[in-house]
User: Fold this.
Amino acid sequence: MLLTGLTARSQVICGTAGEGSTLTLTAPPGNVFTSIEYASYGTPIGVCGGYVNSGCHAVNSQSICEAAFIGQHSASISATNGVFGDPCGGTVKWLTVQARYSTTLPLKLLSFTVQKTMAGKVRIAWSTSEENNTSVFIIERSTGGNVYDHIGSVPANGQGSHPYSFISTTNTSSPHEFYRLRMVDNDGRQQYSNILRINNETTVFSLSAFPNPATDLLTIVSNKQALLTVATSTGQQIASLQLINGSQTININDWPNGLYILKAGGSVVRFIKN
Assistant:
């Protein structure tokens, strides 16, 4: 079974893609996705605004879809076992997502990184441009990828372009930590950044990248510092990047469409730019 479908209503868009296909959600012009209200890779049932899980449901559906869509105007994710794992072997599955969007703020988020420091703390850094009446940046963290807690805030400079940083001193025993920015304007409007992850399991090197396929922004996750090289499918190296222990987002909008190969720490990840 191969199915794809989109349903839009006020401030919400829903989509479904059959196993092996790709789900793309695009918000109206001037809007970005601010939350994922429902996500399930398996055999979900119901209609937009009333989806429910069945006995076949990948528990990581919510966090993976949040990482792919939040803060984006348009994004895609593959409905495959390679992305979500296989919640019910031998059963034909599909991915269903219900996302909420809102009008974007004037500011542009140029960069956003999270990094584990040598002292065991987490440094969150970001830079902006075109700030106009921006009020505050709120840093939120989750240990499961579903519920986020407010762990700190940084006042915005309000106008122009600025770098910012925040140090989190809270330690957890969770193998993964997820971070995002809530950017609030003086008139109360707000939007979220994409979600970045810290991996606290450091026994072996790990490397991942999402979304896949990617269009403009690619998030790279590693659990150790390493030199990353990027090559085309023909082996031509086109870029190199010093990875941090955590997540970082790079802009690939100007890269030609095609297959790319990421190599770092003995790991290899392939992704498609389209």
The longest strand covers residues 31-42. The chain is about 5% helix and 55% strand. The chain has three domains: 4-103, 108-198, 202-273. The helical segments are 61-69, 81-84.
